[in-house]
Amino acid sequence: MKLRSIKGTLTYENDDLELIASFKERGYRTLPLFHVNGEEVPTHLAAQARPAQTLLSFLREVMGLTGSKLGCAEGGCGACTVMISRYDALSQKVLHYSVNACLMPVLAADGCHVTTIEGVGTVKGDKLHPIQRSMVDMHGSQCGFCTPGIIVAIYSLFANSPSQEYIEEHLDGNLCRCTGYRPIWDAARSLCTDDDDGVTRGPCGTACRDCPERETCDMECNELDKLEEKKDDKTTTMCCSTTMDKFQHYKDSVQNNAQEWLDQPNSMFPEKLMSPPSTPLVVIDDSFHKAGSWFKPTSLSELLSLLHQFKGECKIVVGNTEVGIETKFKHSVFPRLICPSHSIESIFSITEEDDHLRIGSCVPLSTIQHKCSELMGGNFDRVAKPIHDMLRWFASTQIRNVACLGGNLATASPISDMNPMLACMNAKLVIVSGANESPTFVKRTVPVPDFFLSYRNVDLKPDEFIEYIEVPRIEEVFEYVFPFKQARRREDDISIVTSGMRIVLVPSDNAYVIQSCSLAFGGMAPKTVMATGTEDYLMGKPFRIETFNEARNVLLKEFNLPDNVPGGQAQFRMTLACSFLLKLYYSTAKSLAEDIARISMDRAKFPQYPELPTAPVISENELSANEYFVSGRKPSSKGTQKYPAPNVYKGLESVGIEESKNRDEVTSPGNERVGKPSAHASGPLHCTGEALYTDDVSLPNGSLHASLVLASCCNVDFLSIDKSIALETPGVVAVYTHEDLEKLGGDNALGPIVHDEFVFLPIGEKVAFVGQVLGVCLGKTLESSEAGARAVKVAYGDMLEEPIVSIEDAIKANSFYEFARHKLDRDEPLEISEGDKIIEVSGSFRCGGQEHFYLETNSTLVVPSDAGTDLTVYCSTQAVMKTQMYCASATNTPASKVVVRMKRMGGGFGGKETRSVFASCAAAVAAKISGHPVRLTLGRDVDMAITGGRHAFIANYTASAVVRSDQTVKLKCLNIKLFSNGGCAFDLSGPVMDRALFHVDGPYYWPEFHAEGVPCRTVQPPHTAFRGFGGPQGLAACEHVLDHLASKCGVSVEHIREQNIYSQGQATPFGMVMGEQFSGKWNVPTMWKQLFNELSYDARKQSIDEFNAKHKYKKRGICLLPTKFGIAFTSRFMNQGGALVHLYTDGTVLVSHGGTEMGQGLHTKVCQIAAQAFQIPLEDVYVNDTSSDKVANTIPTAASMSTDIYGMATLDACNQILKRLEPIREKLPNSATLKDIAEAAFFERIDLSAHGFFALDNSRCGFDWNLERPEGFPFESPQNSWKGHPFNYFTQGCACTEVEIDVLTGNHSVSRSDVLVDVGRSINPALDIGQIEGAFIQGMGWSTIEEVVYADDDHTWIRPKGRTFTTGPGTYKIPAFNDVPEEFNVSLMDNVDNPFAVHSSKAIGEPPFFLGASVFFAIKEAIKAARLESNLNGYFELRMPATTERIRIACGDEIVMQSIGETSSVFFQPKGSY
Question: What would you report as the CA-atom Rg of the chain, rounded to the nearest whole angstrom?
């Protein structure tokens, strides 16, 4: 291909254009046929489809359908999910299946019908589909960015089967960061047609309300149903909503016309596609979009002819799941793509032969999975079941629907799940080649183990093609195949180690002998490998446990991985390989016993076995080794939500704001706006894809796309930048750097507290981190701007010094933000009596960072107007004012001429409080200079690489407790030093550390307390705010210390917790008193007792102990965890906010306020407050967006303070208007509506608009760390209370969580979580419960599976040093649908007031986050039980997060000791980035 110029525009000249005529002669079409949402795509639009273009790009950019979102571009989040429907000639059916539109090439949809979220239903005319309606009603959306993809995924599943089991099995390809999944599960399953009648039934099968023992039965089902009955009778103050309630509601209201909406996919399918195009397709692109040619052959001969013709200069794509990744992230350019048509029967069919199963190489994995499910129980059972079970956990449903075995084999991933399975089963590949449409093919057969030559290198010539795979039949008895895998997360995750194992036994004398075996592994070498040495050792040996224990030594020698092996986790991978070998023994022993029983019951069928030895006896406590998630049913999840009945309560407004006397009456029951579980105001728009986000805003004419130019290394001088090659790139318009900004007269400095960052790094400065912004490239398309940014040449100097990456590096180098070092000291000596024993411990604790993983990445659209003198900035940010001020300074524009508008965010969690600003500034500078509108949306990989996240912490401590003679344990002293990884710039690291210091006491009283904290300066990206803002790190450190003390004292940790929770009147180390007038009612002791008693904690713990005694390889743990979280910005000036309220003459109200909506429901709550004030329906109040020209000088939406601030400010504005209306109301009859009053007031020239404002009282916020005790300060006042009152009040809670771990793999599952939270008088219980569930799951993720990894000394296989490795869902795992607690119960505490906030409510966004760590501490309890099996008793350090690796290694059994080396076992810790 070569460049050519047409009218001054550079394009690529595709040499294949010369071949068009010849391909037409061969019968090829040149125009694809698409149908979208029931309509054929017009020819002029279809002609714009390009070979390298994704379906998502086509839908959004060409068709303007923005409901499908770009979340990650690698098929890992599901935000882009659409449904493909096509007529299948083989089955003569219309097939419906979900796909990732971000990976699927648009041309692969030729002859298909595409259903996007817009085609499912719409808010227009209230035409919501039942799935959309149930998601709205059951509060299944919060930020809403992931919602369209989830709904289409569910829609696709219902198109195939409306059964609950089917939905639970296959809803595995979508992520949600907000909800915690429970309401989504409820919404999906409520529509399943196979659900029961919704009547609560006990284990006896009798409906609880019909049970003759109704009054005496104490079963949980009966007790819950009694609460339901009371609710129905209106005799209780608590509302209770269960999963079964929702099922019953939708069974009654929706399923009456279920067939109509279930048939919608079929009724929408176009008749024209019942006979799809039968001719091949060729599309040749010569525009600058990576150009290329697309071929869709319809016969095997055509396919082979193309391979021969182009001599390997082409790529086969079926699912595009690998090629799509290479194109997007490795920037590979494939000149020709060949996509075989489904009409090629041999490669798209599965057939059962006499001695083998033949699987076409292009058959979708999901089709193989379903076919194997059908074959289970038949002649191919032992072939089908292991393949089926492994495929269940292979990637996601969306990936399996298009990916194929041939692609999996050809790409030769060393951690493929299916390649080891096929290798161990002695599968063979039939490889075919041909030439020039010759009817004669050349075929050869290659055993799967021999196919893999080296890393990503296989025995496949350029003109060859894998036609099908032959999997031999397995013997009916005594031959067994088992799949094994372990990943960081069960669903949709790449394995760390995966294995397929086959073993054949023969009876001999009084035992069984291993006749043969095949042990294939992925994740243990650069390719799929056979453990041949171990196989040789096992063959001919007796089948017994001793044989496998000895074989383990051989296996470890075969797979003796070096410590710095690529991929890391060397010891864990060796441990897993050995654990799988042990599981093979137990699984085989179980199956052997079943075979022996079968033979004994049917001797006629097995005459060759007249007498058989007995199978090895497996002790009862070892049977749990057979239990493995790979073959087990995915669990259902259910939950109960309890909250006080709706009512309106007075809070701070009763003393803080002058109210209208005519609006002071008590609201009549049933007319409450506040206190009701109203749906999220944008819920319907979320669920139909009609909610617009920044990247969805229609671009004005002349708009340009921006991509950032990023530094590729750190700790080097930035010497020069060469734009010339970039500017020659087709489509590139400009590249701007700091020089252009300075010519504009802009200020290049950035930073929320310390101005230690740049918009664009100036030449001559040191590069602070990998990914630092050097400039911005503008292009006419996104692809051209990205290519231009990559083409910029940057020169760097030599490395100045070894990069400081970790906290330990910083401590050694004394690299701190020293000015932010703070201390808290208190000395209140504990009384020591005779006989008391003082116990002291010392140690350290580490908790890792966390990626925000908001589904919507940072996005900005800047539109200049009036000759560029005004800028309108549309962006996804929590900080409107900060964005406004820095865009103004960077562009040398008065702030009054910069308007920042924020409609909604697709999640924020603190990540868009400061770290969104640099991207907006880059776009603003580009728009100002170019005079064109500019859109800059960060790719997921870029966003994760450069925006920072939660701070990792290390805590070094000494602590002591006193054990009284009556075995009471009282905390005595905590001396702790906290270090956080702040990254290369200060950002908010100081305030984050301050909040950690404010929470490191936990909810416990430490008489002597000495805490010191300092952020560390490293080369990581600047770390920033994240839900909890340092509080969770401090709380986690405290709980670790308590666990250490409990171990040394010989008591349970809950024993220490319960006996040391603050009492009313006690003070925190920073001087706040627990008490009504000081910080509100202290409810944690009451909540602890409530959960302890209601959950029968002692009995459950005893039951767990009994379970653990009977199960060697499965262990359970339970944790009851309390928390407190301080509410207020600790900087006093930030506790302020404004609101603008307009009352219109039709009686409707528009509210504008300074807070931003990121899914937390802030706008909904504000509307409820305004509706309550005006006594109008909720739907008559609206919040449009957050805009700097409506409410100026706003504070970032953070610290969980927004409802407190903007609710009060809105109420203030409402009351101003109401007060003005009082004379009018008095003149009108009592029946007058607000519309009547407003109209009358308008004609009386009364202002119907008001600006409200609220600022928290000085006495209830602010803390001066350096203030000395003033003279005359009351001596009896708590220590440090003279420094201020950092929090207005505490939101409090308790959680009880039970978990189960697999000792052999490190896998864990959460059986049950019960959460009780004091939210005061909830303004909206549904939103508050949603926040609790979402925060809990996010906290669970932080403390278990979410591990941020950097190129540091623990990960030497990643380079350059300092680079962020975890930059997408492929490497970073947030909780998925399968990770939620199987039972998830949330209750809001009843009868709790809060006089310090609006309507007596409490903040809720951050406080429940730490309760998710109850999963971590429950896991630690389970590990303790596992360690006892190896006589390991006492304290051990479990670092956070508790990944599968850390869980497995911490169990400390013989396999672990062998893998890590016994000499280092005492001190060994899995590697991590801290």
Answer: 32
SS3 sequence of 646-695: CCCCCCCHHHHCCCCHHHCCCCCCCCCCCCCCCCCCCHHHHHHCCCCCHH
Does 256 score more than 80 pLDDT? Answer: no
CA dist., res. 609 & res. 936, Å (int):
72
| Tokens 């704001």, residue located | 657
Task: Answer whether residue 1444 shows pLDDT above 60.
Answer: yes
419 Cβ contact partners less than 8 Å away, ≥ 6 residues apart: 408, 409, 412, 413, 448, 452, 520, 522, 528
Distance CA 619, CA 648 (A): 61
The continuous run of DSSP H or E covering 1295 comes out as strand 1289-1302
Q: pLDDT-based confidence at 672, cuts 50/70/90?
A: confident
701 burial level (CB within 10 Å; 0-12, 13-18, 19+): exposed
Average pLDDT over residues 1112-1139: 98
Can you tell me the distance from the alpha carbon of 1359 to that of 1365, in angstroms, rounded to the nearest whole number? 9
- Residue-wise pLDDT for 1286-1322, tens only, equals 999 999 999 999 999 999 999 999 999 999 999 999 9
Backbone angles phi, psi at 451, to 5 degrees: -70, -30
Distance separating alpha carbons of residues 1295 and 1284, to the nearest angstrom? 31
Percentage of the chain exceeding pLDDT 70: 94
Residue located via tokens 């000596």: 829
Q: Which two tokens stand for residue 1236?
A: 């009547």
Q: Which two tokens stand for residue 1178?
A: 């909720």
Q: Tell whether the model's pLDDT for residue 207 goes beyond 60.
A: no
What ranges make up the beta strands (E) of 415-478? 428-433, 442-447, 452-454, 457-458, 464-472
- Report the DSSP beta bridge partners of residue 707: 777
pTM of the model: 0.96
With a CB cutoff of 8 Å and minimum separation 6, the contacts of 521 are: 420, 497, 498, 499, 528, 529, 530, 531, 559, 577
1293 - beta bridge partners?
1123, 1317
Q: How far apart are CA 348 and CA 367, in angstroms?
A: 10
pLDDT tens, 443-485? 999 999 999 999 999 999 999 999 999 999 999 999 999 999 9
Distance CA 1468, CA 569 (A): 12
The Cα 411–Cα 405 span in angstroms is 10
Nearest to 1290 by CA among 1146, 1076, 1109: 1076
**1406 counts as catalytic:** yes
| CA–CA gap between residue 999 and residue 1069 (Å, rounded) | 10
Region 870-880: what's the mean pLDDT? 98
228, 1406, 1429, 1445: which one is catalytic?
1406
The pLDDT mean for the chain works out to: 94
What does the alpha-carbon distance between residue 1120 and residue 1312 come to, in Å, rounded to a whole number?
A: 12
Closest alpha carbon to 159 in 109, 103, 93, 100: 93
DSSP 777-845: EEESSHHHHHHHHHH-EEEEEEE-S----SHHHHHHHT-B-GGG-EEEEEE-PPP--TT-EEEEEEEEE
What would the pLDDT profile of 507-542 be if each residue is shown by its tens digit? Answer: 998 899 999 999 999 999 999 999 999 999 999 999
CA distances 1163 to 470, 904, 1147, 1171, 1307, Å, are 59, 10, 19, 12, 40
Pairing mode, strands 953-963 and 837-847 = antiparallel
pLDDT tens-digit map of 1314-1346: 999 999 999 999 999 999 999 999 999 999 999
* SS3 label, residue 1055: helix
Q: Which two tokens stand for residue 385?
A: 């079941």
pLDDT at 247: 74
Side chain identity at 833, as an amino acid letter? S
Q: Is 591 left (phi over 0), alpha (psi -120 to 50) or beta?
A: alpha
- What percent of the chain is predicted at pLDDT more than 90? 88
- The span from the CA of 1318 to the CA of 215, in Å, is 31
User: If residue 722 lies in a helix (H) or strand (E), which one and from where to where?
Assistant: strand 716-722
